Amino acid sequence: MDDLKEPTQIVAIGASAGGMNALSEFFSTMPADSGLAFVVIQHLDPHHQSHMAGLLAKMTPMKAVQAEDRMAIETNCVYTIPAGKFLAVENGLLRLSEPVKSDGIRLPIDFFLRSLAQDRHEKSIAVLLSGSGSDGTIGIREVVSIAYCRCGKWPARSSNTSGAGRRFSAQSIARPLVYISARSST
Asked: Candidates 3.40.50.180, 3.50.50.60, 3.40.50.20, 3.20.20.70; correct CATH number of 9-184?
């Protein structure tokens, strides 16, 4: 597949600060040529530089980069949120902004998912790798294709309109995403 082609779908992956194992499991099984683009939104300390892109680059053959303002979203690439910023999609571009607090709580996953749903509509997929907390649970309702994964010892449950009630591990999410990508490109 052409790496510069617009992705068939953008997959938003929300993860708690301890979600590195689940991300590793997920990306170790995701093919490098899926036709998808991935945006990882993780809870980060706003005062420390993020090394997430470098860590993910070791887990996948896809290009993994930290998002920059007005960056184009490319097929078969992984984008990460910088520390101390919120990330959104606007007119097909990644946009950075200062964090927004809701009742004193930062909700970067909800913020990104809402923007993704508004900008990409049916070309949006959300995967929530959640250990605890509720960030992402509001925004995920706005995304068309959804997989909710509570990774670790607990099985996951899909809220996908075509797979309600199905259970996934972080590793098993890759196959349905590739299937969705193939179906949407035809």
From this structure: 3.40.50.180
